[in-house]
Write a structure and sequence with these properties.
37% helix; 8 strands; globular; 6-stranded mixed β-sheet; alpha+beta; Peptide Methionine Sulfoxide Reductase, Chain A
Length: 219
């Protein structure tokens, strides 16, 4: 699990109490798939699905973009239905930690969402982001139609290399199903601003994002 490795690595052993508490929780597991969740959203929204390592970081970034209606952390790309966080952390279910992004396409384009994706995580490291290691942390775009596929592939080839020197290893795969993560994962950065992982890892990443995309932020 990301927190165990991070806290030992950073010498923040007292915070392991928090990890133990989270590991012991038995929150209800999200079981809604894409079609079911879309029924509860306003009409006219489009949806995008991105895996950029820790979904706490990715959610914190996308929810600040103008035109984004809702962001939900969850799991996609695996072969086990209704996985739990503990199962996904084993790396055996095939899922990636992802965010599902519902957005108004007249306010923000899918191309802009993909540019944010490539600019705010490292798409050159295979199955890892920093100290988070495993296939569940892979860089991946799950496309929902052929247009999204074309945009994702094009930006992977011509945009991402302008930001990163090493080869881009981002997976681009068809979307199949989305399972929302447990309740305590949702809006994690907003709800836990003083938590060490948020302050040391997520906070700096969000501040960098705000500078890079200041013209696209919500008021």
């Amino acid at each position: 699990m990301r927190l165990h490795f991070f806290y030992v690595h950073m010498g923040l052993l007292p915070c392991l109490l928090f990890v133990a508490a989270c590991s012991g929780q038995q929150p209800s597991v999200g079981t809604q798939k894409q079609s079911e969740m879309s029924d509860t959203m306003p009409k006219g929204l489009k949806v995008a699905t991105f895996g950029a390592g820790c979904f706490w970081c990715t959610e914190a970034i996308y929810e600040e973009l103008r035109g984004v209606y809702k962001v939900v952390s969850g799991y996609s790309g695996g072969h086990v239905p209704n996985p739990t966080y503990r199962q996904v952390c084993t790396g055996t279910t095939g899922h990636a930690e992802v965010v599902q992004v519902w957005y108004h396409s007249d306010e923000i384009s899918y191309e802009d969402l993909v540019k944010v994706f490539f600019a705010t995580h490292d798409p050159t490291t295979l199955n890892r982001q920093g100290n988070d290691v495993g296939t569940q942390y892979r860089s991946v775009i799950f496309y929902h139609d052929e247009q999204q596929k074309e945009i994702a592939q094009r930006l992977k080839e011509i945009f991402a290399p302008t930001l990163w020197d090493d080869p881009i290893v981002t997976e681009i795969s068809p979307f199949t199903a989305f399972y929302p993560a447990e309740a305590y994962h949702q809006e994690y950065f907003r709800n836990n601003p003083n938590q060490p992982y948020c302050q040391i890892v997520i906070g700096p990443k969000v501040r960098k994002f705000r500078k890079m995309f200041a013209d696209k932020l919500k008021q």
